[in-house]
Amino acid sequence: MKAGRREFCTIILGGISLLLIPGKTGLARGKGDYKPWYGERYIPSGHRYGMGINVDRCIGCGRCIDACKRENNVSDDPFYFRTWIERYAIAGNGEVTVDSPNGGRDSFKDHIREKNVVRAFFVPKICNQCDKPPCVQVCPVGATYKTDDGVILVDEEYCIGCRYCIQACPYGMRYLNPKTRTADKCTFCYHRILKGLVPACVEACPTEARIFGDLSKVASPLSRFVRINRIMVLKPQLNTEPKVFYAGLDMEVR
Ligand code: SF4
Ligand code: SF4
Question: Which end of the chain is more exposed for a tag (fewer CB within 10 A), N or C?
């Protein structure tokens, strides 16, 4: 049944203007179609979730990636990651090299030996849960949406696998799930945070390089992290308004 609708929509998308689809076919996902994952006492609009990443603390051990794959049933193949670690090495002449073998999942066993490296550091990457998400804007059926607590999710019941969102994300955070053939990405472990738990990657990090929290609460660990550190976000010039905040990030990081 689901595959039938997906095939149908893919054919339509191939042949007819996208403008004709949402609303007219009755297949588009409507705002407010939230799955009832939370109890009556949880009010999504009272929260605004984000993540802080302290680059100076990350040791590139890769435990976060392993935890994410286990928690979210992400394919073991090395092409699929909801979060990964990049290693940046900056040479004295300004040359920058970046590597991320198996997404950093097996840690970085090959050491940087070049003598002219003046700085090397690890940068965890994850969906930025943008406040102005291009991935949401381009989805022709509303399958990608922003919750009232600020998390970007994909409703696989509605996703037609057209990949527009994958192309639109300027951070390369999305992939096509090989099993469901729908768009996939980090959800901040939405199923966990609604129970008051932190995302699996945050729980697994041995150095507390990742800080999860509620930006709407002044006293939350994340609000404090953002207040006391010199914060940067990735690609600020794109005005996507990321809610993943980095401390200790070098200007060379893309
Ligand atoms: S990082 Fe990419 S996938 Fe995540 S919300 Fe922003 S545009 Fe969408
Ligand atoms: S678990 Fe923490 S220290 Fe290890 S790679 Fe992930 S963010 Fe870095």
Answer: N
Question: Given the structure tokens 């901040």, which residue do they identify?
Answer: 188
> Is 228 within 8 Å of 96 (Cβ atoms)?
no
**Looking at ligand 2, which residue's alpha carbon is closest to its atom 8?**
58
Mean pLDDT of the chain: 87
* Burial label, 23 (beta-carbon count in 10 A; 0-12, 13-18, 19+): exposed
Q: What is the pLDDT of residues 237-248, one digit of tens each?
A: 999 999 999 999
Q: Which atom of ligand 2 is nearest to the CA of 65?
A: 6
Question: Tell me: the pLDDT tens digits for 6-29?
Answer: 554 544 454 443 444 443 344 677
Two structure tokens written together for 163: 């990949």
Rounded distance between C-alpha atoms, residue 95 and residue 200, angstroms = 34
Which ligand 2 atom sits closest to the C-alpha of 63?
1
Is the beta carbon of 60 within 6 A of some atom in ligand 2?
yes
Q: Does pTM surpass 0.70? A: yes
Is 59's C-beta closer than 6 angstroms to any atom of ligand 2? yes
Sheet harboring 96-99: ordered strands across? Answer: 96-99, 83-91, 117-126
Listed in sequence order, the residues at least 6 apart from 192 whose beta carbon sits closer than 8 Å to its beta carbon are 71, 198, 199, 200
